[in-house]
Amino acid sequence: MSEKILALTMGDPAGIGIEISAKAWSKRRETSLPVFCLIGDRRIIEKSLQDVIPFKVIGDLSNAPSVFENALPVYDTGPASTEAEATLQAIQTAVRFCLSGEVDAVVTNPIQKKRLYDAGFQHPGHTEYLAELTHSSGKAVMMLACDSLKVVPATIHIPITDVPSALTPDLLEHVIRTTEADLKTRFGLKKPNVVVAGLNPHAGEGGSIGNEEQTVIIPVIHKLRNEGLNITGPSSADTLFHAAARAGYDAAICMYHDQALIPIKTIDFDNGVNVTLGLPIIRTSPDHGTAEDIAGKGIANPASLIAALKLAGEMASHTRNSG
Prior knowledge:
The chain is an alpha/beta fold. It is built from twelve helices and twelve strands.
């Protein structure tokens, strides 16, 4: 496979996924997008794309580059009996193509988790489902990325009151190791600089404002630094995200969801990308939901999807070079 090909899942049929996919393809030249093929139920995709953009159903992904210039390539996963089934079929197919080497990366449009839960879906979200589909031995790690910041929350969708007990040395070490490894192989950084935020205000002020820094964070940092990782911290989160501070590191490990997501969404709300680290495949996704309230109105912004497609292409290039 000489030219990079990305598998783009259609996402939830009731959301904006197919709409922003069409808009992204329409901007392919001005944004220098890599070739991508939209994966999903042909009937659903055709209904959304009819008279919007030219598209062509292909049976062989190797034909995607020749089609892409003049039409959006579409791969049909076959008819699904429910929207939930169609959503999952697209993800399963894209992952299968990536594991087989037929595509370089998977980019996923947003899914509606409640609809999937109602249909019996057993996973907290996309990330955990992808880990199962790829038979990943370790726990996948979520990164949010934009041009000027990469953040990785150590704990994610749990109540803030549960964070201290969830933040174990083993978890933090795994998150840091996974991030550092993927910064090398997926982002092309030979010796990445990783900074670790504190959990408490002012990083605990030597234990006077909480002791998690002393009992969990600092021992892990010292262990990994002694192994040669270029890692600093714990740093006070309130001084970690201004421009001068960001220039000093490649990625910030944060202790909980909002500590990571507030700065990146403040800095670059429209162009944030969700990246899954620790998988045997490359996976990116726009950093927003299905936006069903605006679906079908033609006003959805494709910026985050465009950023996700571009980043997936860049990660694929770095991965090829590192191999």
